[in-house]
Design a protein that fits this description.
Length: about 260
């Protein structure tokens, strides 16, 4: 008579236990289904780590940066900066040393002959200008460190500067800027000693001393076997550039004498 009661108690206990386990098993499943996904945050670098940097731009190995501040000329393709070896000019034109260039207290090496507007074929000259043909003493004398002659300064303005599309002051500021962009190598710098070099060696020395300048952008001129001038080509914003017509007109001598300056 007591066994059915005991069995009922055991059955009831088993049902209660299974209901409890079922309830416990469902609760985590509900939470996992409804839980908000975690927010991903960027982990900052450790304090000692350097901040990430963008890669630097590749260097320009063909030409240095142009000069954005120089006045921009117009009406031509490019410039030729002509640098005259003063001892050669003096030996040919002023042996007596009557000019400041050849007989003054200062010994000159390369001086600026001129800055010439040039086209791919030929060049303009003696162009109409609103400016006076005459260069003032105040403007001219400020150039004596690189062009030691008022006569040469005035001639360069009338023949070449008037074709630059610039006024006098702007033209001569570009002329000075062009000269300052050229570094004369040590092998050509001194005017104290006579020496010999080939035109190709002179062009290579200049190219090596001036990043962006190539031998195709330089011409060496000569009088007989004596160095006369070097001519360097620039874009209108004063970047070095090649100039085939100028280069073809260079000296064909095998070797050149670079005279020393005469002592005053």
């Amino acid at each position: 008579m007591h066994r059915p009661v005991l069995s009922c108690v055991r059955i009831a206990a088993a049902l209660a236990a299974s209901l409890f386990l079922a309830t416990c098993g469902d609760e985590p499943a509900q939470k996992q289904a409804t839980a908000t996904p975690p927010i991903l945050q960027q982990v900052p670098p450790p304090p000692h780590a350097p901040a990430p940097q963008s890669a630097p731009p590749a260097p320009n190995r063909t030409s240095p940066a142009a000069s954005p501040d120089v006045p921009m000329g117009s009406g031509f393709d490019f410039y030729v900066l002509s640098l005259s070896w003063s001892p050669s000019w003096c030996a040919e034109n002023d042996r007596a040393g009557k000019t400041a260039q050849c007989g003054g207290d200062r010994t000159y090496g390369f001086i600026v002959h001129g800055l010439w507007p040039q086209n791919e074929r030929g060049f303009p000259s003696f162009c109409p200008s609103r400016d006076s043909d005459r260069v003032s003493d105040a403007l001219g004398r400020g150039l004596f460190d690189i062009i030691p002659s008022m006569g040469l300064i005035g001639h360069q303005w009338r023949k070449h500067g008037t074709c630059s599309g610039l006024d006098q002051r702007a033209y001569f500021s570009v002329l000075r800027a062009a000269r300052e962009r050229v570094r004369i190598p040590a092998s050509l710098e001194t005017a104290d000693a006579r020496r010999r070099m080939s035109p190709a060696a002179i062009e290579t020395a200049l190219a090596d001393a001036n990043p962006g300048l190539t031998p195709q952008g330089v011409a060496v001129t000569c009088g007989g076997d004596r160095l006369d001038e070097i001519r360097i080509c620039f874009s209108r914003d004063l970047a070095f550039r090649a100039c085939s017509e100028i280069d073809r007109g260079g000296c064909r001598a095998r070797d050149l004498t670079i005279p020393a300056a005469a002592r005053p």
